[in-house]
Specification:
Layout (H helix, E strand, L loop, with lengths): L1 H6 L2 E4 L2 H14 L2 H4 L7 E4 L2 H9 L6 E2 L5 H13 L3
Parallel strand pairs: 1-2, 2-3
Length: 86
């Protein structure tokens, strides 16, 4: 899965538990020194403030947050981030 993970440029999280599961997955896929830089070379969106807090507690950046905790609002936040050229 490393080749796929290396190509990922955008990630969206819909809950703290999906974020924690993804962290566990990344830790199994990368050695520690490579795992640490992974979130800083991607754009990351979250569905709401609870999920954002989980990422921030793990020292991960949050580039976009949905205005409302819905899938449609998360897509809108991703589109806005993409249009801003980030």
């Amino acid at each position: 899965l490393r080749p796929w993970l290396d190509r990922v440029r955008w990630v969206a999280f819909t809950s703290p538990s999906t974020f924690r599961s993804f962290l566990d997955f990344l830790r199994s896929a990368y050695p520690p020194e490579e795992f640490l830089w992974w979130p800083y070379t991607r754009r990351i969106a979250v569905i709401g403030p609870v999920t954002a807090e989980a990422l921030l507690r793990a020292s991960w950046p949050v580039h976009a947050q949905a205005e409302y905790a819905t899938q449609a609002a998360l897509v809108e936040a991703l589109v806005a981030l993409w249009r801003a050229g980030e």
